[in-house]
Design goal:
Strand content: under 5%
Mean pLDDT: 83
Oligomer: single chain
Low-confidence stretches: none
Number of helices: 8
Number of strands: 0
Shape: elongated
Helix content: over 70%
Order of helices and strands: HHHHHHHH
Length: 166
């Protein structure tokens, strides 16, 4: 369900890239002002950037919806939210109270989507995380080494060579 918002937004942006380009333009202009190598590597053409973002949203959304590499797909989708939506959600620059409130709601909705994507990118689908598996493997290795040592010795002994002898 989380992917549906991105697939729909991506399709809309591919059909009509001008509004998406106009929305991304302020973020691109801000990034272009950063020092090199970041500023010089930011795309100059906002419409091309909007199309590339749309394709990433469609592909990432489809991958997430079908369960194919969901962690990578959700992380990629999260990176598309900021530049694509920042230009349309700048409520802090809005003077009209009603429009400001609407933009703030949209901004908070986008933040919520990013939060959902972060959760999805960390989800292991019931499998242990890499950190847990690494700690478990290290503990098993340590137990194996300790059980191979003669009685009374442990893997942490500093004078192991003296106690084992020739």
């Amino acid at each position: 369900m989380l992917a549906a918002a991105f697939v729909g937004q991506g399709i809309d942006a591919l059909r009509s890239p001008k509004p998406a380009a106009d929305a991304a333009r302020p973020a691109l202009e801000g990034l272009q002002k950063l020092p090199d190598p970041v500023g010089s590597s930011v795309p100059q053409n906002a419409e091309t950037f909007a199309r590339a973002t749309a394709v990433a949203q469609i592909l990432g959304g489809l991958l997430l919806a079908t369960g194919k590499v969901p962690r990578l797909a959700s992380a990629a989708l999260a990176t598309t939210v900021v530049p694509a939506n920042l230009g349309t959600r700048m409520f802090w620059n809005e003077m009209d109270p009603e429009l400001k409130a609407a933009k703030r709601r949209g901004f908070l909705t986008d933040i919520s989507l990013v939060g959902g994507l972060i959760i999805a990118s960390a989800d292991t689908a019931g499998k242990p995380s890499l950190g847990w598996r690494g700690r478990r493997a290290a503990a098993r290795f340590s137990d194996t080494v300790a059980s191979a040592l003669p009685a009374g010795l442990s893997a942490g002994d500093t004078d192991l060579a003296d106690r084992v002898g020739a």
